[in-house]
Structure formats: structure tokens, C-alpha cells
Design goal:
169 residues, mainly alpha
């Protein structure tokens, strides 16, 4: 196990946690700036909380690729798996807990974010160590960029489904 990989992944978790918290409040701090809305939370919907994980993890992956990722031919495939895992876990945990208890207190929502980020980075680390076959890293990177575009578009034109509804309204 490469110690530098583990340290890099731990730093990614910390970066994601700090950036996610900042992005949770940034939209209001900037007087609801439309540009900021594209990548930060504009309400308390599950979708917006997924953005808080996606953008920091993706930005960190872009930075990490420059310094660490060239050691791993499967870099973008592993990052896609980690990010998508997080994007699935957030609504999965939220709706499971909310369904079981009829509510999800704020502290639980915060815990879901951090637990999800930790699991995502842990799985990524294990996949880097184990190695997986990645046939088309450019296609995988394109998929990540498309996910980013979907987050931006659905911020301004959200579908009318519960995932996009602000539970505080």
C-alpha cells in the first residue's frame, strides 16, 4: 500500500468536507448569485446536497490527477466509481432514514454527507490499490463532465420530482 496514496485520499476527504460545508452556505453569502448557484446549494433538497459532494470531489480529482493520478492508469475510472457511489449513497441513506423514522434531523443530514464522502474515498483507495481495468479513461472523464453539466442545468430547470423538492418549504 502506498502511503502517499492514503494521505492524498485523506486530504481529498478533508477538502471535500470543508468545500462541501462552504458550498452549503455560499449561495446565500453571495446574495443568491446565479453563477454561484450553478455549483453550490440553492435550497435544502437532496439534489442540492448531492452537488455539495460532487463538485468538491470532482475538483479534487482534477487537482489530484495532476500530482498523483498519473501513477494510476485507472485514475478516472476509480474516480467515477467513487463519485457515483457518493451520489447514490446520499439519497439512498436520506430516504432510508427518513422512511424509517419519518424525519431526518439536520445533524443526520450532515452525518450522511460526511459518511458518504468517507465511504467514497475509502472505496476509491481500495480500488486504486487493487487496480481495475479501465478501457476508456477519456470517456469516463467525459461522463464526469456531463454529470457536472446535468447538475448545473437541473439547478436552474429542476424536474418536478421529490429529489428536487426543498423539504423546508
Amino acid at each position: 500500500m502506498k502511503k502517499t496514496l492514503v494521505i492524498s485520499q485523506i486530504f481529498g476527504f478533508v477538502f471535500t468536507g470543508i468545500a462541501g460545508v462552504i458550498l452549503h452556505f455560499l449561495y446565500d453569502w453571495t446574495n443568491q448569485n446565479a453563477f454561484v448557484a450553478a455549483f453550490s446549494a440553492v435550497n435544502e433538497s437532496i439534489w442540492e446536497h448531492m452537488k455539495l459532494l460532487f463538485f468538491p470531489m470532482f475538483i479534487y480529482a482534477l487537482i489530484q490527477r495532476r500530482y498523483k493520478g498519473k501513477e494510476y492508469k485507472n485514475f478516472w475510472c476509480v474516480k467515477l466509481i467513487g463519485i457515483v457511489l457518493g451520489l447514490v449513497l446520499i439519497p439512498g441513506l436520506y430516504y432510508t432514514i427518513n422512511g424509517a423514522f419519518g424525519m431526518t434531523p439536520d445533524w443526520v443530514n450532515i452525518a450522511i454527507f460526511f459518511v458518504t464522502a468517507a465511504i467514497s474515498y475509502f472505496v476509491e483507495t481500495k480500488l486504486f490499490q487493487r487496480g481495475i481495468n479501465c478501457k476508456s479513461p477519456r470517456l469516463v472523464l467525459l461522463i464526469l463532465w456531463l454529470i457536472a453539466v446535468v447538475f448545473v442545468v437541473f439547478t436552474f430547470i429542476p424536474p418536478n420530482i421529490p429529489l428536487f423538492e426543498d423539504p423546508t418549504l
